[in-house]
Amino acid sequence: MLSNRINELKYLNTYYERAGSQIIVMYGTRGIGKHTIITDFLANKPNYYYKARPASEREQLYRWGCELTRADTRDNSISNLPKYPNYDDIFNIIVDSGKFKNVLIIDDFQYIVKNSPSFMQKLVDLAHGQWNTGQVMIILLSSQIGWIENSMVEKIGEHAYELSGFLKIKELSFYELTIKYRGFKLSKGIETYAILGGNPGMWQYFNDQLSTEENICQNILPKHAYLRHHAERIVADELRETGIYNTILAAIAEGHQKLSDLYLHTSFSRAKISVYLKNLMELQLVEKIFSYDAGGKDNSAKGYYRITNHFVHFYFTYLYPNLSDLTRLSPPEFFRTHIAPSFKSYVTNYFKMVCINRLEQWNRNDELPLKFAQSGEWVGKVGTIDIIAKDDEGRTLIGLCNWEKPFMSYEDYEWLLFCAQKAQLQIDYIYLFSADRFDEKLNLEAKVKQNIRLIGANEL
């Protein structure tokens, strides 16, 4: 188990060890690792797994019954299963009343809930009904984050009170990716993270023996490559009217990140754009970024939108705008023409993310000169401050992240101080991150001033 999944495993085991029956909703995007966690959790536990499908209630029950009939049986009761069983027929077979708690996993359970008014009531009866003498832990799996977080409770009504807990499986960190790809240097690791993000299901498609260019050319750009159309599947998984969503996502990837810019570019009404952006944010494909609330509000920019899913961002930055060439050119030609010229700039924001995550880790471990309670970035009308963090006493740490330049210079440091002045910040500590090195003048400045810390690749 990757270290960040140990907590999820403990969560499930805690509920399993409790007396009585439970119903847990476990959800996360496809490929995020739900089934890996479930497999590890089920070791030495009596269990039954069913994967639902989009179908009518009668068809669902018929297919479920067919699967039970074909399976090796634990008792003879399956031979008496009706051709078109009901939920009681099925649950009586798959859950016994032995001394061990049974685990029932229903994958893609939303397909049943959406078409079966009685399903949740029968599930509650199974877990908490007086007639049930056995203990059962029911795990309802789903990859539809938007439906779980925004529609499920309304759909199941009062049965939501019977749910024991929710477990959302989140993306893994850059640190976890470096464990997976131990052969990667920092630069290749961050480039991979910028493309695939923290979804371990996608990591299997990259080879740590290949360069980033080779991985893209072999595993994303070819017609037969699974990842070539993966972003389209992510968007279409929960959304209708994909044409409108594709338009908005492509516009954001191109740099039209404010509502007014999206309005001018797409010609959709502001109200329409706002509704679709809201849906994209609920699915965690887009987020709205606000400048850190510093004193220099006159010099700060208003909020803007950013694509949060790494691979969706990569797709709409490079593949979607160039679909004709993607079909016409060979993968190496496409890479040289459309990706290589701006790829280093594309990765910059993800390098910032890695630096921020590292700073947050130091903060949790009390390895900073202050314990910050809030953090963010300041986006000015001229210039930005990549990192601002403040503690409860008002002490302020600011940071600058350099990815594109061969080294961070003293002039970069002076520009950071200029931006801090525009933001009207009183600075206590300065953390400078660089993927490569720092110039001699900046190294000397850090030796003279105790509040400046230079962080290179080795510390990341």
Descriptive report:
By secondary structure, the protein is an alpha/beta fold. The chain has 22 helices and 14 strands. It has helices at 6-17, 34-41, 57-70, 87-94, 110-113, 119-128, 145-150, 152-156, 174-180, 186-196, 200-203, 212-219, 230-236, 242-254, 259-266, 270-282, 310-319, 323-328, 331-339, 343-364, 410-422, 440-448; strands at 22-27, 47-51, 102-107, 136-142, 165-168, 286-289, 304-307, 372-379, 384-391, 396-402, 407-408, 429-434, 437-438, 452-455. The strands form four sheets. A five-stranded parallel beta sheet has the order 2-3-4-1-5. Helix 1 (6-17) crosses helix 2 (34-41), helix 10 packs across helix 17 and helix 10 (186-196) crosses helix 20 (343-364). It is globular, with a radius of gyration of 26 Å. 34% of the residues are buried. The mean pLDDT is 91.
